Request: fold
Amino acid sequence: MSEKFIKAEEVAQLLEVSVPYAYKVIRKLNQELADKGYLTVSGRVSRQYFNERMYNGSAQKKEVNA
Reply:
């Protein structure tokens, strides 16, 4: 089962940025979630929300051959 939260090390690897910058990205995403009324975990962000914001949800979609 896939983890529900993504950590800074994985964010850094996926975005090809440094770990400190990945923490900045996570803080921004968590602030967006907090502004919407969601609880957040410091240093981690919802994998689903990360995919929606970074890839417009396309990381989860599969191409269908017609």
The first helix runs from residue 8 to 15. DSSP finds three helices and two strands in the chain. The chain has one domain: 5-55. Residues 60-66 have pLDDT under 50 and may be disordered.
